[in-house]
């Protein structure tokens, strides 16, 4: 089952038997994955006749990665 991106779900649980229901658990908040935050700082590194080295800070903060690990970066040039 696919869930929509950046959607909040709230869950609570209670138990039941033939006498009745238990108290309800505390609420658990789950937020589905989101797109990573925008990149902010691409830096020009070493330039040689055969190469250009670019550097940028890696996304390590869980909230910046869209709550899913970054698996690759796409570099575009023109």
Percent helix range:
under 10%
SS field, number of helical segments: 0
Proportion of residues in β-strands: 15-25%
In the sheet with the most strands, the strands line up as 1-2
Q: Could you say which structural class the secondary elements and strand pairing correspond to?
A: mainly beta
Uncertain stretches? none
Rg over alpha carbons: 22 Å
Shape designation: rod-shaped
Determine the N-to-C terminus distance. 39 Å
Helix/strand order, N-terminal first: EEEE
On the 0 to 100 scale, the average pLDDT is: 80
Main sheet specs? 2 strands, antiparallel
Task: Detail the topology: elements first, then pairings.
Layout lengths: L7 E4 L16 E4 L11 E5 L4 E4 L23
Antiparallel strand pairs: 1-2, 3-4
Structure summary:
The chain is mostly beta strands and 78 residues long.
Structure write-up:
The protein is mostly beta strands and 78 residues long. It has no helices and four strands. It starts with 7 loop residues before the first strand and ends in a 23-residue tail after the last strand. The relative contact order is 0.20.
């Amino acid at each position: 089952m696919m869930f929509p991106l950046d959607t909040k779900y709230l869950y609570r649980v209670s138990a039941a038997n033939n006498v009745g229901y238990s108290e309800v658990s505390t609420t658990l908040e789950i937020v589905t994955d989101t797109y990573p935050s925008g990149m902010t700082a691409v830096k020009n590194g070493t330039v040689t006749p055969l190469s250009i080295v670019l550097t940028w800070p890696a996304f390590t903060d869980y909230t910046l990665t869209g709550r899913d690990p970054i698996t690759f970066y796409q570099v575009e040039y023109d």
